[in-house]
Structure formats: C-alpha cells, structure tokens
Fold:
Amino acid sequence: MNKTSDSTDLSVSYFRASDPLDEQILALKNDGAIVVRDLASTTLVDQVASELQPYFDTQGQHFEDDFNGYATRRLASTLAYSSAAADLIEQTHALALLDPVLLPNCSNYRIGSSTGIEIHPGEKAQILHQDDVIYPIRIPGIDWQVSVMWALSDFTVENGATHVVPGSHRLERAGGYENAPSVQATMNRGSALFYLGAAWHGGGANRSEVPRMGLVTTYALGWLRQEVNHYLTVPHEKARGYSRTVQNLMGYRCHGPYLGRFADDPDGYWHNKY
Structure:
C-alpha cells in the first residue's frame, strides 16, 4: 500500500489486488475511498471504451446540465450498450471488497446505477457531492452504497481525475463539504477508485487536450430502490445473455424470502409459504 497526497495533506491509499484484503477494507471504511491499481486488463477496459464510444458520441449529451457539466457526456445503464462492461461489474476482487461493507445490512446487494462518464477538454470541476443523498434518510453506521469508478483512460490531475474528500463520510459539518479541500485520485487505465456513498467527491476539471473516460457502478443494499431501473433500460434479450451473477446484481433476484419474489427466482423463494 502507498498513499498519494497534495498540498492539502489529504491522501488516498493505493493498493494492489495482492495486498491484504482486510487492509483495503479497513482503509475504505476509515477514509471513505481507496484506489486499487491495475485491477482490470488494459485489453478489457479498451474493449469497454470502444463499445461505449459510439453511444457517447450520439447520446452522451442528453445529460448536460449545471450539475453534470456542459462538456461531459454520460451514459446511464452501461449494460445496455457494452457487454464487456459486465466483466467489470462482476469483477471478483471488486465484489470481495464490497461484501464486508454491504452484506452486514442486507441479504444481497445490487447495482443502483452504472454510468459511463466522458469529461471533455474545457470542462469545469464538478461540485463536490454525496451519492447517497438520493435516499431521504441516513442510519448511522450503515452504508447505503459503494461506488467503483473504473478508469477507462488514464486519470490525471490535468484531465479531470475524480476529487475525493477523505474522511468526509464520517463527520457531518455545517454546509457540507462542497468547498472543502480535496485530493484527486489519479490512476492508470484499468485501475479502480472505490468510494462510499456518503464520501464527498466530484469530477475534476479537464485542462488537457483529450477526453477522460470512466465507468462508475454504484452497488446498493438489496432492499433499497435502485437508482436506475435496469429491467426497463437493458433489453431483456441482452440481460438474458449476461452471467447469473450480473443478472442478480441487476436485480433479477429476490431479496430475502419476500422482497421482489418471482417464479424463476434463483434462490427458490417463490414457492415458500408465508
């Protein structure tokens, strides 16, 4: 493990997948964010990027607004556009990091959203924010969600690497952390930034001459309403082609014996009696 910091003395811990898993989990819980270097092959992330690019070019501008930016292209529900993205979403080490954070508070977790983000040159820094504010309440000690931002291109200070405020998930403060000092999570393509839903973060300004592309997937407790309705945004014929793990993460699985029951539930709850 090592750390990167800037002039604010804030730092993010960097790991390799081969580092002790308990150290990675502890850092994620304590700091709210970590980076795991070179977690996916460049061949895979290049394939995902190439599959998403045509849709960024033709549909990505639909999400332009004051929050997302006007030089940033976005794609919601990436599984509708990139079959290779499924390999990132079900990546074994990523799920191993998520399990001890989320499973203490649910029977299983699922994808809240999976979004492609391409920040173009000239884009301003995004306002710092928390992702879990989509839910109207918080319960101390429970993390609603964890996000994994995959670098589909190198993330640098110049091209808009994600800003994070380490420790911001643990302490509430008047006015929030919108103007708090932050550190940028620079990383090579194929690396991944993990951050808790309550951790303050935001996309960086792109002062380079090339776009910065990432894919961020949010994993939420299985009894929460998903941010994106994957049953409607991903065509059924495409969903059928994904692995059972990915289908489960999309929500084609009951949560415990009673939430979301259906006849072909892989856990067999449909025929259970009340």
About this structure: Helices lie at 21-31, 42-59, 85-89, 92-102, 230-233, 236-240, 244-250. The mean pLDDT is 93.
